[in-house]
From TrEMBL:
PANTHER family: STAGE II SPORULATION PROTEIN E, STAGE II SPORULATION PROTEIN E-RELATED
Stored InterPro entries: Bact_Sigma-Reg (IPR052016), PPM-type-like_dom_sf (IPR036457), PPM-type_phosphatase-like_dom (IPR001932)
The organism's taxonomic lineage, starting at the top: Bacteria, Bacillati, Actinomycetota, Actinomycetes, Micromonosporales
Designated name of the protein: Serine phosphatase RsbU, regulator of sigma subunit
Residue span, PPM-type phosphatase domain: 157-370
Keywords: Hydrolase
GO terms assigned for molecular function: phosphatase activity
Organism: Micromonospora phaseoli
Amino acid sequence: MKEPVNRARAIVTTAPGNLLVPSLAALLEQEYGITDTELLQVDYRLSALIPLTDGEEVTTPGHPAWRCFDHQSPVYAEGTGYLPVSMRGEQRGVLRVAPVSDERQLAGLAEIATALAHELATIDASTDVYRTARRSRRLTLAAEIQWELLPGRSRLRPSFSLAGQLEPAYAVRGDSFDWSDDGERVWLATINGMGEGVVASMLTTLATGALRNARRAGIPLADQAALTDQAIYDLHRGEQYLSTLLLELNLRTGLLSAVDAGSPRLVLLRDGEVSVQPLEEQFPLGMFEGTNYREQYVQLQRGDRLFMISDGVLDATGGNVRYGETALDRMLRRTTPMTPLGAVRSLLGDLRAFVASDLTDDAVVVCLDWLGPQTGGDGVSTRPDC
């Protein structure tokens, strides 16, 4: 089994980017007698698994492909194997292979699917093949800009797991999120830019670039906000500004630093109970010149779940009724057994069902689980990255 797996890894790392799946399919037929190999990519909305080649989208809840995607484990059903195509927590989709004689084949095939995920991440910026194929409709220009800004949609590390999602996925304008980690800390930002269309997306692009620039210079969280505030004010003189929530989590201690510049809100789910964290709401970034920002602190406990939620979630309306805090609290409690990606997918799915259509206003949800410090005797993580 090991030799075919190694050959498959070699193929996906050397094949031309647009031929990854056909090259892999040829090897699987030769080594395993598999005659049907298909990559199903999750779409931007997290509501469909779309074949790379021609075929029907998988949208039915409970379908083996969705069970594989949701639980991140191989699924065997009626002679077909479904394998998670994921790397470091970034869930790209599912590899469907058939015929598969029995479940014992799935372990080796799952390694091949993981190798495929790593290679897809490597070549994604150099080809449009996979981005184009995972769209069920055309993105607006503003949405194209926003999705290109993102660091990913989900992340898994020994000490934390997180995920985020934008809505309306194919027409989002000014809402976005960002994150980074260095093994000791994880930084998160949710951004709610004012304006419509490309104007909003360009404002968010400026803010994201300024925040990253300050963060990569090793500047404290409050000063990251201040420098970004100044960059936006220098360009727009207070005529355009944006709301943001900045977080920095110490992965060893669970101490969370926060700067609330005009909201989105921060919600804690602990032991099944939901509580909005009482942060000081400071001026949005770019509203005034020379604003000073202050950090606040929240001590997390192992197993805590945080949600960063923009106003577009609470203010969504269906039949002239606002979604509101009661519906939000109920839905957040229901996410307790889910992964962070499952949680944001379920929350925004519930929101779309409530409004009975696509959202008309932007909404962003980021979910972070702090799993607690994972340390060995030398004080560093002993678990490999996923």
